[in-house]
Amino acid sequence: MEREYMTTRDIVGPLMLVEDVTGVTYGELVELEFPDGTLSLGNVLEVNEDVALVQAFQGTRGSNPADTKVRFLGKGMTLGVSRDMLGRVFDGLGRPRDGGPEILPEKRLSIHGSPINPTARDFPDDFIQTGISSIDGLNPLVRGQKLPIFSGSGLPHNQLAAQIARQAAVAGEEAGAFAVVFAAMGVTFEDADFFMSELRQTAAIERAVLFLNLADDPAVERIATPRMALTAAEYLAFECDMHVLVIYTDMTYYCEALREVSAARKEVPGRRGFPGYLYTDLAMLYERAGRIKGRAGSITQIPILTMPEDDKTHPIPDLTGYITEGQIILDRNLHRRGVYPPVAVLPSLSRLKQKGIGPGKTREDHADLSNQLFGAYARGIQAKELAIILGEAALSEADTAFAAFADAFENRFIRQGEHEDRTIERTLEIGWQLATLLPRGELKRIKDEYIEQYMPAMEAAIVEGAMDAS
């Protein structure tokens, strides 16, 4: 039941204190009518007896408390969902931003979702191909996983996000039941246009839902954006039996919006001024990923965040790392050397990778080859550092081979084109080609049967290629 009040006592930033209210509940949707006749939406942040703290999504600039009407709508914030959302672009509050008509919803769902009973969760164990070798080959993404990308200011995380959104796919009969939900928070108009054009050029927009919150949109709207995206993802996954990949960027802007609202509420700040409930708030988003027993669909998340001053101990990446199952880290030194995508292989980690690879998922040699490439690259980096200190003449023959391997690994395995979509078979093929650069006796992490099965063909192809080139 709707109730209207004109008892606003105070307005601070996007927050309004409304007195003498009855029957108001936490999270209730509010319609605000300002003295100039403009309307805005908001929601209830806190209720204390007959006083309600209301958060305005479009801001409260120029409003007069005494002349502002506050209409409590008797329901929480919801999103109208339908399969027709695929191929559409919305703003941070779920309103069409592409000039198309309003969605005719099949149902309306609360943007806060429903907690998943831990006993009903199914373990993530299926491979999602991103088309990027440094991820698929060494730190694969598993269906139902939360795998963040830690980036820094000026690094090409937006290009990487768009590439994953374009190329990501699942194998087999379920390939047609795959969708991407993309949420951009606090991005510039130029970045928003880049995301839309990248998906439209390859027709990937047809299987995607975009939620775009621009930098000049109210910060409060930014808090609702990922919840809108996850609500759409939950409908597609658990009602339409689709496998949904949710990508959101940039979680740093989201957390800064939380800090702004927390400061307006005069809450006691925690680390770096962020609210003490930052961990809980992030967990409420990240834990909406997963699979449910008896349901065919799944939700996989790739949150992207920029680390202030490339500091991994900053509260945002620090807390994100506690909640998620690994991280992909972008490296500034690789970026300076022109390597794209600049994925730092050694500190990156996918904790569920062993569950998503192997026979029937990728290939039987994937795990062994991945371990060998990782170990050889680590030793090659050490050899290059030793050469800087002692000179190349001090390196052993094996160290020289590993140093050459490290350079080739960066140039042929990590480096790939922004529009180059590699299948997992192509990624493993490149890995075996690189393995031929090492002495056979150093391939200690690969079973002999795999070496005998795959190595001769790679060596023959290299010899044939050299003869053709001559």
Describe this structure in words.
It is built from 13 helices and 21 strands. The protein has helices at 133-136, 157-167, 189-201, 219-238, 251-264, 278-286, 315-323, 332-336, 353-356, 366-390, 397-414, 424-435, 448-469, and strands at residues 3-5, 8-12, 15-18, 28-33, 39-48, 51-56, 69-76, 78-81, 88-91, 107-110, 121-122, 127-128, 141-142, 149-151, 178-187, 208-214, 243-249, 290-292, 298-306, 326-330, 343-350. The strands form four sheets. Strands 9, 11, 14, 15, 16, 17, 18, 19, 20 and 21 form a ten-stranded mixed β-sheet that branches. It is elongated, with a radius of gyration of 25 Å. The mean pLDDT is 89.
Summed up, what is this model?
The chain is of the alpha/beta class. The protein contains 13 helices and 21 strands.
